[in-house]
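Progress narrative, work stream C.
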Amino acid sequence: MSEPLLVLALEGIPEVQPGDDLGTLLGAALARTGGALPLRADDVLVVTSKIVAKAEGAFVDLATVQPRPEAVEFASRWSRDPRQVEVVMRQAVRVVRADLGVLVVETRHGFVLANAGVDASNVGPRSGAVVLLLPDDPDASARRIRGAIADRFGVAPAVVVSDSMGRPWRVGITDCAIGVAGMRPLDDLRGTPDADGRPMSATIRAVADEIAAAAELALGKTARRPAALVRGATPPTGEGSIAEVIFPPEYDLFR
C-alpha cells in the first residue's frame, strides 16, 4: 500500500518584511504546526515566491517609475497603470505577445509568463503604491532556506519556491515551481515500461510543479498561509535547478 500524500499549511507566519530571516520564520512555523515534526529527508517545503521576494526586498515603488511611451500607450488602450506596465517591460528580455491588456514576456530567468510575474496583490501595507518582482535567483533562495532548516532541525528537506502561472490552452492559474533545492524538478520516465510493458518515449513528469500545485490547494490565495510541507510525494533525489524545466527554444513550436 502506497504512503498517503500529506500537505500541511504552516501556521503563524507573520507579514514578511524586507530583511526578515525567512529561514527563522519558516523554522518557527514548522515547530508550531502539528504533525510537521520530526522532518524527513524526503519531505518538501513549498514556499511561495511572494514571501521570498518580500524578504529579499524585491519591491518597486511606483512613484519612482517613469513609463516609456510604449507603456503609456498600452496602458491607455487597456485601462492599466502605465507604471506597472513599465515595470513589466523592464523585467522582460522578450515580449512574446502584448494584447487584451496582458503582456506575455520571457524573463531573464527563462520563464514565459503573464506580466513577468510582477505582482500588485497581497504585497503588504503599501498595497497600491508598490509592486513585487520575482526573486532574483529562486534556486539560490531555495538553497538558503534549505540550509537554514537543516541547521535548525538537522534534516534537510527539499525546498520548492512556487508562483502562480497561467497555462497554454487552459483557463485558470495553478502554482508552479520557479526554484528548487535538494531535488530534481523533473522525473524522466523515457525508456521505462508503462503499465502494459511498453517503453515510454516522451513522458517526463513535472514533479516540482505537481508538488507546488498540491501545496497551493492547502494554502489558498487569501488565507495568508504562504508555505506548506508536502510529505509522501517522494521527489526525485539529487541537486536540481529550475533551469531543467525551461523549454529548449529549438523545440518551442510557438516561438
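Work stream C, second folded protein:
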Amino acid sequence: MQSKKEIVEDWLPRYTGVELDRFGELILLTNFDHYLELFCKINDVEKEGVDSTMPSAISNGIRLINIGMGSPNAASIMDLLSAIQPQAVLFLGKCGGLKRRSKIGDLILPIAGIRGEGTSDDYFPPEVPALPAFNLQRAISSTIRDHHQDYWTGTVYTTNRRVWEHDDAFKQYLRKIRALAIDMETATLFTAGFANQIPVGALLLVSDQPMVPEGVKTRKSDKKVNDSFVKQQILIGIDALKEIQEDGRSVRHLKFD
C-alpha cells in the first residue's frame, strides 16, 4: 500500500472492527468506555469491535466510537475517518474547568482550540488556528437549548501532558492565556479534521476544577460526574446529529483547499 487512501481504507476496519460500508455518515467520538456503554443502553444496541482498539456502536445512522485518551489517538481517528468522509464528527469529551465561573457538570461549546499538544504540528504550522465547523457548533447550541440547558463558550487548551495539576508554573501559564478549559483532544481533532476535510465539532463536560487542589479529579468525583451528567451530554450529542441528519444540512464552512 502506497497511497493514504489505500492505507486508511484498510486501517479503519482494522482499528474498529467495522467494515467501511457499515460505518454511517454521522460520527460521535468519545474517549471513555462509560460513554459507549451508556450509548448502547440508551439506544438498545450492542457494541461492535469489542476486541479492537476503538470499539463502537451504531443507532439510526449515528455511530459512537471510543477512541481512547490523548491527542495521538485523536489525530489517528481523523486520518482513518477520511476513508469514509463522514458528514459530521462530534466529540463528546470531558475537560477541566480553568475559570471559577464554570462549575462541575457545566457544558462547554468551544469556539477554538489552543494547540499545546504538539501532535497537530504534523498537520499545519503552529500559527494555523484550531477551529470547529461553525454550522455544527450552531446545531449543538440549538440542541442544548432544546434540552433546557445552558453552556459556556471559549477556547480550550489541548495538552499532551496528563499529570500537570501539581505544576504551579504551568498553571500560571494557563491563567495567562485565559483559556476556559483544558483537555487532551479538542484542538487536535479540529486541526486533523481540517486537514482531512472533515467537519468537526465538540461538546465538552466540565468534570473537574484542576487549578485548585480540592478540585483535582479523583475516582470518587469522576464517578459522580458519570452518574449525574454524562447521559444528558450524550443525548444532546445524538439530537444535534439527528438535526443535521433530518434537515440534510451541510455543516461545512471552511474551504478545505
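The first strand starts at residue 26 and ends at 30. No further action is required on this item.
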